[in-house]
Amino acid sequence: MKPSLQVRLSQHLALTPQLQQSIRLLQLSTLELHQEVEQMLEQNPFLEADEDSGGGPEAVTVEGGTAAASEREDWSPAADAPADAPAEAAPAGEGEAAGVDQLDFDSADASSDWDHGGDEYDSLSDVGGARNGAPDDEDSDWSERSSVAESLPDHLRGQLRGMRLAPEDQLLVEALIDSLTEDGYLADPLEEIAERLAVGLELGESLGRDAAPGEVTAVDIDQAELPEAPTPEEAQAAAELREELLDRLRCALGWLQNLEPCGVGARDLGECLVLQLREHDATEARRVAILICQGHLELLARRDMKKLVAATGADEDDIRDAQSLIVTLEPKPGRRFARAEANIVVPDVIVQKAGRGWRVVLNPDVMPKLRINDMYAQALRQHRGQRGADEAGSGATLSARLQEARWFVKNILQRFDTIQRVSQAIVERQKGFFTHGEIAMKPLVLREIADELGLHESTISRVTTAKYMATPFGTFELKYFFGSSLNTEAGGNASSTAVRALIKQFVAAEDVRKPLSDSQLSTMLEEQGIQVARRTVAKYREALKIAPANLRKAI
To answer: Which residue ranges have biased composition labelled Low complexity (predicted)?
Structure first.
């Protein structure tokens, strides 16, 4: 074939670096965003944390949306929208040409008008007073305010220091503490722990030094030179050592199980409950409860009254009293020592009452405080103003880093602005929820919010993933407010969330001696005008973590 040149005209979506960064920041959670900010602060010298929100001579303070205790009655949705925020959306279908979802970010390229009156965007802080009526609060960083709770091992070691045990016994108790799970259970059998400790002692002797249990490391194991075939005398001595360690570990386990919280150090659920029952007054109910926990918990879970009576020799009234006592116990003694930070959900937006309606404000605790370093920016401008400066060298590289810092600040502001717009649209659609709770939730899909804001469904999906809203009824993920619709006899639609709320109410009000089956729940919903099949009711019940009727029945 003869080579030739051809000219072709085609259209495709070019993802600029700024657009790619905007997409990535939008789908990040709050924790991931703060990690991204920390990484950018380390990499880019032009970007710095705005600790005092003071701003330099050329710094522009962003009026970012925040939330505070003060509420202004003159608030209006128009006041929350940036005056120069563009509302253009990318043409549908262009996203597929670039191998991504259809994109419709405001300010999709680097030349957008997000400069707020100039070509330099120098500061992003969480002041936001003019926007949401929220004053500055330098101490509002949730990550700094979260206190470090005492862990379960530290709590146990603190009690252990006051027991005045022999050093060897204290080391054995500490070895057991190291084997506890987060729930407070002993993870390994005593035989395995004794085996490990014996191996550690033998290795310590082979290294020619005294080694306490747990002090032998992997490096010591590599350096140790143990005989491949021990003599009968050595094997006998090793067996006696393991037996002695096992006996002392049993005593150490008794000391551990006497520590607070009660039930810690148990090897299974039955032992944990028995340890707690022994702290109660001696009654017939306690005696029966101990018998049940020692070997008949499965029968109790199945509500098998006949077999429980035969196994324990107690009458039905005593078994019911024992059940009432058992349900008051703590199955996970270490629960209250779990890391609180792991369970904390920091909302991105907060819903506040505003007159007869509701308004959405951004949470100031999640707003990063960033600005451009004035000294570096001025030095770069002076460098560019000098004649003969090598623009193709270091000056161009520094200019690119400065522009990168400004893009980063703009994209963060755009991220929070998009979250606030979407959240406000959700609140407007779900006003009944904020007044009456989840039972008043309406059906809602991503397309409705996307059409209202002129965005694409993929953008709404990114915004509502791992973003949380604080409401009068608790903190929920934004996706919680979206739900499918179910037909009603009146010809309308009911939200699946509202149906689940009704199921929860029905189960809460049922007779525990005759719990409602899935078929009965379906019939009750039909009486309310909502057509739901039995299988759908079972699916919703399982999603609510409600046990079947046979397991909800009281014995």
So the answer is: 77-102
